[in-house]
Amino acid sequence: MTQLQQTYPDPLSVNEVPIQQHFNKGEVTESSTPREPNLRPRMKSDRPSKETDEIKDPAVRIQDLSVWYGSKQAVGNVSLDIARNQITALIGPSGCGKSTLLRCINRMNELISGVRIEGQIEIDGEPLYIDGVDPVEVRRVIGMVFQRPNPFAKSIYDNVAFGARINGYQGDMDELVRQSLEQAALWDEVKDDLKGSGLALSGGQQQRLCIARAIAVQPEVILMDEPCSALDPIATQRIEDLMQELATSYTIVIVTHNMQQAARVSNRTAFMLAQEDLVGRLVEYGQTEQLFTSPSNKRTEDYITGRFG
Ligand SMILES: Nc1ncnc2c1ncn2[C@@H]1O[C@H](COP(=O)(O)OP(=O)(O)OP(=O)(O)O)[C@@H](O)[C@H]1O
Ligand SMILES: [Mg+2]
Questions:
Q1: Nearest Cα to 259, choosing from 92, 33, 76?
Q2: Which of 7, 152, 181, 187 is the most exposed, having the fewest neighbouring CB atoms within 10 Å of its CB?
Q3: What is the pLDDT of residue 230?
């Protein structure tokens, strides 16, 4: 079974709505996506227009990045600018290097032995892959949320406070925990049980707790690797709504197999593919609406219309 098949049904795809319908003549109509007003996907007018597509002052700049695991190359020559305070989706078939690329953005890949990375990534114009850059500090500035919610076996409070304590946070910890849980849209559900175990929460609540934990160290970028694939449709929708709120303050990069999700939440989408040589490369990158409605590459079109992957 492919990972695509393993993912939970999409909350809005019960009628097998074609992906392009999210951009029905460029507008998301109420009839095609019946949602509460504050839950509806970003309308076309909220998306960057084609004229303004050039990414000025990107939050993250990936330059000619290649990654090997031992002698096997996983990612080849990817260059990608990621816009500040927007949501960028990485899509592509299993094994095309999406997670590998994502983990390079906060230097988590080098925790895997035998990894070799060439190229450069800049955050706010500062190169990450040079001597003297502390990978631990990089991972503070660039937080990560994983596929499976992974709260620590600690209280809700201690989960959120964990990173801040390690960093020697001197401010009001109670306030930081409250703010982080509020930002992660979890506060109302847990405020009376902050000493309760993080592991006792539902999957969707655990994922929001992990997001609160990531936010509490005040990152600039949040990387999310299939953050909803272990969640039910309702929990998925809450995380999607949350992502849209967080994007006003943070730059978000999300890997997803769910193209409806990429279409709903992201401003820009990057399509990766490992072709005959099995090296994952960037095939197409652009505004989400453009990529899903008029892809410029045949392979992109084949993928988003479900012909392979
Ligand atoms: N720790 C590792 N050691 C060796 N090879 C790895 C490792 N992690 C990934 N790879 C290989 O690198 C390639 C890209 O893997 P990656 O996990 O980045 O793909 P992906 O696009 O995230 O796939 P999926 O959608 O299944 O999560 C694959 O061929 C994979 O087997
Ligand atoms: Mg992956």
A1: 92
A2: 152
A3: 87
Give the domain ranges of the chain: 3-8+57-304
Residue 52: what pLDDT? 52
Query: What CATH architecture is 3-8+57-304?
Result: 3-Layer(aba) Sandwich (3.40)
Please list every protein residue whose CB sits less than 6 Å from any atom of ligand 1: 3, 69, 74, 92, 94-100, 112, 280
| Predicted structure pTM score | 0.85
What residue ranges of the chain have pLDDT lower than 70? 1-52
Tell me the CA–centroid distance for residue 146 and ligand 2, in Å.
10
Check residue 20 and give its pLDDT. Answer: 63
Q: DSSP characters for 83-144?
A: -TTSEEEEE-STTSSHHHHHHHHTT-GGGSTTEEEEEEEEETTEESSSTT--HHHHHHHEEE
The pLDDT score that the predictor gives to residue 29 is 37
